[in-house]
Amino acid sequence: MAERCAVVGVGQTNHTSCRADVSIAGLVREAVDRALADARISIDDVDAIVIGKAPDMLEGIAMPELWLAEALAAHGKPVFRVHTAGSVGGSTAIVAAQHVMAGIHGTVLTIGFEKQSDGNAMWALSVPIPFGMPVHAGAGGYFSPIVRGYINRSGAPSHIGVMVAVKDRTNACKNPYAHLHEPDWTLEKAMETPMLWDPIRFIETCPSSDGAMALVLMNEERADRHSGPKAWIHGTSMRSEPTAFAGREQVSPRAGEMCAEDLWRKAGITNPAKQIDVVEMYVPFAWFEPMWLENLGFAERNQGWRMVEDGLTEMTGSLPVNPSGGVLSTNPIGASGMIRFGEACMQVMGKAGEHQIDGARKAVGHAYGGGSQFFAMWLVSSDKP
Amino acid sequence: MSEADGILRVRQPIGVQYRWSAGPNATSHLQGLIEGRLIGKRCPGCELVYFPPRNGVCPKCARILGADVEVGPRGTVTTFCIVNVPFLGQKVKIPYVAAQILLDGADISMQHLIQECEADEVRIGMRVEPVWKDRSEWGPTLESIAHFRPTGEPDVKLGAEAGAS
Amino acid sequence: MRDVAIVGTAQRPSQIETNLTSVELILPVIHEALTKVGIERSEVGFWCHGSCDYMSGQPFSFVAAVDAIGAWPPIVESHVEADGALALYEAWVKIQTGECDVAVVFSNGKTTSGPIDRILTLQADPYTVAPLWPGFDAMSALQARVCLDAGVVTERAMAEVAARSLADAKNNAVAYAKGDHSVDELLARPYTVAPLRAHDCGLPVDGANAVVLAAGDAARRLAKRPAWIRGIDHRIDTQRLGARNLTESNSARVAAQHAGVGHDKVDVAELLAPYTHQELLLRSALGLDADKTRINPSGGALVANPAMAAGLARFAEAAEAIFAGGADRAVAHCTSGPCLQQNLVCVMEGE
Predict the structure, then answer these.
(1) CB of A84 less than 8 A from some CB of C
(2) Would strands C342-349 and C329-336 be described as parallel, antiparallel, or unpaired?
(3) What residues in B contact C56, CB-CB < 8 Å?
(4) End of a domain among C171, C193, C227?
(5) Are residues C218 and C154 in the same domain?
(6) pLDDT digits over A275-310, tens only?
(7) Are residues C316 and C174 part of one domain?
(8) A84 and C78: CB-CB below 8 Å?
(9) Measured between CA atoms, how close is A42 to chain B, in angstroms?
(10) Would you say residue A244 lies in a domain?
């Protein structure tokens, strides 16, 4: 029933803490223009635009896609806005793909962005709600007790978090678009960085970034006529669960497990650790790498940390995770999910430059949001499904 | 206003005022806090007790929560973190402990501060009790409780789900 | 394309203000929609929600809504930062891919909890327009002025829209403003934001609603007379008021063409027109003849305008008209942005 869909162009901004050199429209067009150039089409060839970003309080503009329509040359075209919290970059790409798979549009441009420096990100992420109890702990304060739960139950040694952090920051040095370029981290130096929300250290925390990501998707007929490399979508999946309920499993949420199970089934994957060549997963705090390895089915319960310790998730390992440097090195919230999805495409298109995993044919993009309750994933391949 | 590389940046504060409602199904809980009591609510479907009664709804059953249930005052730490980040307007001296506490009789943990002990003394399974502010400061908010402190009781051994919720 | 229909709807009776939280608002309409259609939560393949953080005054405000739909075991769910009508569009697309057969779309807006005119101003260009705080009513009034000066609308025609809507609303349980008023009586009232009068502007209310979509045989099983979606399309225009012809809505016209409005007669058209002059512009853009088509028999957004839910309410009303047999072919419309900037048009038919 569904048509095939491929990503034929990828573009992203040079992410950094403050893009004082561009307006929001300029930021978005930087990614868009690069994606269009990569796809070798003009903006007039775009049939529809699907755009996603996180809470509008981050920039102080309500529903900015309305104002951005002009900058996107969208007069007379469909523009659609997705907002699913932190997973939004991923779910936006999925909604865009669905427009193609449903046979409605042949060429869809999808964008994820955030210009956090325009507002006050810390405030926007934790606006005090009346009658509530502010513990002023922020996102790190929300997730670190859960990380403590993982360490407690898995028996993981305390250096696992910094191993992931050093890996991602080192990988980011091979990614010209990444926000943080910090080549001098060692495990020893990392272990000395202060605890921010014990057990999460300073180095294990993502930055706050301005950035945008854009993808050009085409249906099979047009993609076949396109001579450049393509990332064929083999499956997409989304799952959600409530933020808090009695007995909720917070460390490895069922929604994440089901999202992955659904994706593996759709894409014909029976042994993820063996059949997937590279994973771009949403790791804003380093300990989420071993946690998500288990949650997504790459490792058995309580064993994810061993994959990290054995170096399997390094670029040279058997399952490279986040060769782009990941969310730990770049985090414009509305774009981060799409950056994961887009980096997965770049890998199978052979366009990842210095952080290319040689021979990558099957890659997974993963995004999550809210209180680890919204999950979005896709699997892309250089081969048609 | 600032200018760099010929680009002008202007900070425009945006102020919007909202009228916020806690909703009728949270009223007994909030009224309880005004009176120094810990009132949760039971779901008529799954019978689990929610404290606080988030949105007045059981998220599993999608049902309005029903009967009021007094919980606590004591509880058990299910997980926690030690906050070491300076925040604008921070009232508590860092490092301080933000913890998830499962009050006796409740089926879901709540978030609050742990004080009156060293941060590194806090453990999963530790028994704690609320320290209320001065009665004159009690209001419809969990801020009526200043913090929780250890009771000195033996730790509770939580199962494999420790740290999960 | 798969045949997809609306098979059930639920709307919360409007009142000017409610003390219910958004979750308490949404929960009963979901329950009512599922009950009317006769399905369990587990039979729903996709849930899609429309709402706006700035309406709610809280970032991530939609996250709480997940509590209202019982997302356990985990569900397939998504959210648009827009009116529920756009959420319906996403659900329709999802069903077209074959990923599911039954979807529930819902939306909510506590329009009275914040200064709606000020909030909607935040949609404007953040560099050159929003800092002037023009006000959403004022921008619409600007458009009304242009239309009056161009002779495209008259104040009398605008008042007639209001009088008709208020009278029709007497039959609508979910409308608040209702009653019999003569056109002259309305024209005698003072301007609020000239050339608009109070009755020319939609009444902000708190509301929530839900619509159930189903494909093919599932639709036939769930509804006696499904409201089949025969065409649906949305388009956007540039936002800049100075860059477009404000006496028309280009995107509404284009969307209506793609949705196939003009292919056959239209019995009922539920148009989201929060301002009377905009109903007149939309009639033109969609090619509707008010003598042949009943326009907003519900009273439309003039009598109840729950922001972010008012568009989905039009879909609910149009579908109900088909369910009841009062219409064989109906149009539902939603708009977003200043002066009819973005428009979604849908054509529905009963079999």
Answers:
(1) yes
(2) antiparallel
(3) 18
(4) C227
(5) no
(6) 999 999 999 999 999 999 999 999 999 999 999 999
(7) yes
(8) yes
(9) 28
(10) no
Tally of CA atoms within 13 A in the half-sphere of C161 that contains its CB: 32
Query: Where do we find the tokens 């949760």?
Result: B40
* Pairwise CB contact (< 8 Å): A67 & C336: no
Domain ranges of chain B: 24-150
Are C121 and C99 contained in the same domain?
no
* Tokens matching residue B143: 């801020």
Q: Which among C41, C67, C69 has the least Cβ separation from residue B55?
A: C67
Answer yes or no: is A268 within a domain.
Answer: no
Instruction: Give the number of domains in chain A.
Output: 1
Residue A148 belongs to some domain of the structure: no
**CB-nearest partner of A242 from C60, C72, C236:** C72
Q: How far apart are CA C136 and CA C140, in angstroms?
A: 6
Supply the pLDDT for residue C167.
Answer: 96
CB atoms within 10 A of CB C180: 9
Query: What's the total number of domains in chain C?
Result: 2
Task: Tell me whether residue C188 is exposed, middle or buried, using C-beta atoms within 10 angstroms of its C-beta: 0 to 12, 13 to 18, 19 or more.
Answer: exposed
- Count CB neighbours of A190 within 10 A: 21
Dihedrals φ, ψ of A54, to 5°?
A: -85, -170
| Of the partner residues A141, A198, A249, the one whose CB lies closest to the CB of residue B164 | A249
What residues of chain C, 118 to 147, have a C-beta less than 8 Å from chain A?
Answer: 119-120, 122-127, 130
Residue C16 is predicted with a pLDDT of: 76
C342 touches chain A (CB under 8 A): yes
pTM of the complete model: 0.97
Provide block-wise average pLDDT over 10 residues at a time, chain A (385 residues): 94 97 97 98 98 95 96 97 94 98 98 95 82 78 92 96 98 98 96 93 96 98 96 98 92 98 98 98 98 98 98 98 98 97 98 98 97 96 97
pLDDT tens-digit readout, A187-244:
999 999 999 999 999 999 999 999 999 999 999 999 999 999 999 999 999 999 999 9
Which residue from B minimizes the CA distance to C31? B62
| Residues A47-63 pLDDT 10s | 999 999 999 999 999 99
Whether chain A has a CB inside 8 Å of the CB on B114: the answer is: no
Say whether both C151 and C240 belong to one domain.
Answer: yes
CATH of the domain at C215: 3.40.47.10
Quote the domain boundaries for residue C136: 116-201+229-349
Tell me which residue of C54, C84, C94, C72 sits closest to A373, measured CA to CA: C72
